[in-house]
Amino acid sequence: MTLEFKPVELFGGAIAAHIPNSYADVSNIREVPDHQEIYLDASGFSSVIIELAERVTQPPTDEEALKFHFEDIVDDHDTSRIWRTDAAHLAHFPPDTPCYTLLATTAPPPPTNGNAARPLTPTFTCVILTLIRLIPQSTDVVVTINIPHIPGQQEPSDRTVDFEQGKFGSLVEEGLRIRDEVWKSLEIKDWGLFAGADE
């Protein structure tokens, strides 16, 4: 399926990006924290979250900070695994801006005491996370694409995914295309959004 994107203004227009046309602003239906923007696929279950977080200084390295932000969003009872970590390159940021990405999966614990899983409980969720470190602004920008794999709601290719072999299935491949479009389009329009901004 061909993805089409639309421009959106985030945080009152201070940040701009492109997201898929089918994704809707969650703040139109429920309250969203001021430091987050959340868009949900109106025709599926995937979501895009853009978050402004205080820059992590412990752990000390960028790679460890990337994993810290991932672990921060994973439920304590879930099983998680990071499959890939790489440097990221965002078109509208200086080349020396530390940017990193990871691809991971999380899975809820199996039902206990003979109870069946609740309807629409994912078998697992793929998480595609990008970390942009704005050092002068003491801010970590975290972009998270969540792709739940729910039984009965999948394309045939999504039933035979094998992350070790690089077989991601159509849902994850779509998520990677969304990530790539965010990398090309995400832009700070008003640096005054950040405390301590010097631009």
Notable characteristics:
199 residues, alpha+beta, seven-stranded antiparallel beta sheet, three-stranded antiparallel beta sheet, 15% helix
The strands making up the biggest β-sheet line up spatially as: 3-4-5-9-8-7-6
Quick one: biggest sheet? Answer: 7 strands, antiparallel
- What Rg, in angstroms, do the CA atoms define? 17 Å
Helix content: 10-25%
Q: Regarding quaternary structure, how should these chains be classified?
A: single chain
Tell me the total number of β-strands: 10
Low-pLDDT runs of 5+ residues are none
β-strand amount: 35-45%
Q: What is the helix tally?
A: 2
Structural class: alpha+beta
End-to-end Cα distance: 40 Å
> Any idea what the shape is?
globular
Structure, explained:
- By secondary structure, this protein is α+β, with helices and mostly antiparallel strands.
- The strands form 2 sheets. Strands 3-4-5-9-8-7-6 form a 7-stranded antiparallel β-sheet, sandwiched between helices. The protein has a 3-stranded antiparallel β-sheet with strand order 1-2-10.
- The mean pLDDT is 90.
- The protein starts with a strand and ends in an 11-residue tail after the last strand.
- It is built from 2 helices and 10 strands.
